Amino acid sequence: MRSFVSKPDETAARLTDAPTNEGVSIEGSEEMAVTRCICFDVTFERINELCDELGGLSAAHKECGFGARCGLCVPYALYANKNRETDLPVMWSTDFKKFGIPAPAIERLEAFLESMGEADRG
After folding, report:
1. Whole-number average pLDDT of the chain
2. Where are the extended beta strands (E) located within the chain?
3. DSSP string covering 2-29, please?
4. How far lies 17's CA from each of 13, 20, 45, 115, in Å?
5. What is the pTM of this model?
């Protein structure tokens, strides 16, 4: 079985080389809305439609694959389906916890980013 998950060193290299948002205003920016699973390019609107047609998130996942790579979209998809919203703000694990939605991939990302910050300082 082929794994689509990057190795930590590869991820760190991509993040280090990524462009910055310096000088870009985030507040009120539509570009910052989370609207889809970026790995499979499927919108939360489409995921909601599949949930309605097929009977739930598990069936929608099997149909379009959302969440099967990085997993960052899974809590967003849960929130989008539960609240019938499809343009979501960037949220962190504490935001999802307020709604009772687990976000393990986001927690791993937060821990990684925190460790990178410690490495930069130390």
Report:
1. 79
2. 36-37, 42-43
3. ---PPPHHHHHHHHHHSPP-TT---TT-
4. 6, 9, 32, 17
5. 0.71
